[in-house]
Specification:
Layout lengths: L3 E6 L6 E6 L5 E6 L6 E7 L7 E3 L7 E2 L4 H9 L7 H8 L2 E6 L4 E7 L3 H12 L6 H19 L2 H13 L13 H4 L4 H11 L5 E7 L3 H11 L9 E2 L12 E6 L5 E7 L5 H19 L4 H8 L8 E7 L2 E9 L3 H18 L3 H18 L3 H13 L6 H8 L2 H11 L5 E8 L8 E3 L1
Parallel strand pairs: 3-9, 11-15
Antiparallel strand pairs: 1-2, 2-3, 4-8, 4-9, 5-6, 5-10, 7-8, 11-16, 12-14, 12-15, 13-14
Length: about 425
């Protein structure tokens, strides 16, 4: 396979970036941003905490691995046989890190100098795994402590309790880091198997944005990328119905004000259909509960919510959730008012003027994002992994109609699929008592 290049241009703004199909199998996206002094590079694989069942063309059946292994692998990849990768970045002055999400793992750095040296480090260490039984055992203790810390984090718990109330079987309901029990099953052999499967360049993307050139990126890629064959990777998830698990989850912790998440389970959608649904849903949530909406204003005036209130779309392979969250002295009342607002909008339609306001605002935010180096690099990776391009959402926003939003609300949103997750102030010093309804 030969390396090919294609310029992707936004017909709306004239901005552009270069998409490179590298001969190694890797997709490379380079967004040259003239006048910027910083650069960010992200080397990501479409492998996250939910990918626990998979097979390749060489496998007879699906392999099931312990929950939390993607996050565990991310931790271990920063160590190689000779040194710690952060020591190498310290010499270039780059700020480097990594994260594991539900459907991806990304390694990244930002810098204002020595970009090429830092990119060489990134590409080299991500392609050079080194795991031993001894280092795995040591990491199990470290990540075990991290899991316990997350278990004690009220914001983390209220979110995952919501997912547990919505999803019956999908692994999205499991903590990204796994459990103490699941990480105890991880071995160096399992890590190598997951690495060879998911860190195949055909399953990865490299995005670079800011003070960079296509020529510099390609020169390093040509020298350091190790060509590999496409494994024809397949991942599967347990069959998940649209029924929720429970309507409410209450738990106690050391918080001053009750925290809540109201989640609405929707039918999952992937690729272009998923991006379109996500873009429309984001406007629907703003019209329903944005700061200019009657719902938001009445809840604030009555003291039922405060400035922490927000909405979000949580979407990925096999899951799609609408979220309303914040702090409230009466989370059930907030849930009921949200439900009433949805039912009213389904019957009478969304407000035209609010739709136009939030459509313009969302479009403006997207254009503004194109002037943020880090945001552009992350958006490039997200779009590529979703099977699209960075300008797709902006095009959808510019062509979206009120009818699109009303149709989504009427066909995709069902108030019977709402769950409420609450973390209440502990009634005793120990806290933690949980009540499920």
């Amino acid at each position: 396979m030969e390396t090919t290049q294609k310029i992707i241009t936004s017909p709306l703004t004239g901005d552009h970036y270069v998409q490179i199909h590298h001969k190694s199998g890797l997709e490379i996206l380079v967004y040259e941003m003239e006048g910027f002094s910083t650069t960010e590079a992200i080397f990501g694989t479409k492998y996250g905490s939910i990918n626990t069942q998979f097979k390749t063309a060489a496998d007879d059946d699906y392999c099931t691995v312990p929950e939390g292994i993607a996050h565990f692998l991310e931790h271990k990849l920063f160590e190689n046989e000779d040194c710690d990768v952060f020591d190498l970045y310290a010499k270039t002055g780059a700020n480097a890190n990594a994260f594991t999400y539900f459907d991806r793992t990304c390694y990244f750095f930002s810098c204002s100098d020595h970009f090429t040296e830092s990119l060489e480090i990134l590409i080299s260490f991500v392609q050079s795994p080194y795991f031993t039984a001894e280092s795995v055992a040591k990491e199990q203790g470290i990540i075990g402590q991290e899991i316990r810390m997350c278990d004690d984090d009220p914001e983390w718990r209220v979110f995952f309790n919501m997912l547990g109330g919505l999803y019956q079987k999908h692994p999205v309901r499991i903590d990204i880091a796994g459990t103490i029990e699941s990480i105890a099953e991880i071995t160096d052999d399992l890590l190598y198997r997951c690495y060879r499967t998911f860190y195949n360049l055909h399953n990865m993307v490299l995005a670079v944005a800011g003070n960079c050139t296509v020529e510099d990126v390609l020169a390093i890629a040509d020298r350091l990328l190790k060509p590999c064959e496409d494994l024809q990777l397949e991942t599967i998830f347990p069959e998940e119905s649209l029924e929720i698990v429970r309507a409410e989850t209450f738990e106690q912790a050391a918080v001053g004000q009750p925290l809540f998440h109201v989640g609405i389970k929707c039918a999952p959608q992937d690729n272009a259909a998923g991006l379109q649904a996500e873009t429309i849903a984001s406007i629907v949530l703003e019209v329903l509960a944005g700061s200019s909406s009657p719902l938001y204003q009445s809840l604030r005036n009555e003291g039922l919510i405060n400035s922490t209130f927000s909405t979000d779309i949580f979407r990925g392979d096999g899951f799609f959730t609408l979220i309303f969250c914040g702090e409230s002295s009466d989370p059930r009342a907030v849930r009921d008012r949200i439900t009433a607002a949805i039912l009213d909008a389904q019957k009478n339609g969304l407000d035209q003027s609010l739709f136009e306001e939030y459509q313009r605002t969302a479009y403006g935010k997207f254009v503004h994002m194109l002037n943020d180096v880090s945001a552009v690099a992350n958006a490039l990776v997200s779009a590529q992994m979703a099977g699209g391009g960075i300008y797709d959402a902006m095009h959808l926003l510019s062509t979206m109609t009120l009818e699109d939003c009303n149709q989504f609300l009427q066909t995709e949103v069902d108030v019977a699929r709402i769950t409420l997750s609450v973390i209440e102030p502990a009634k005793n010093e120990k806290g933690g008592a949980e009540t499920l309804v």
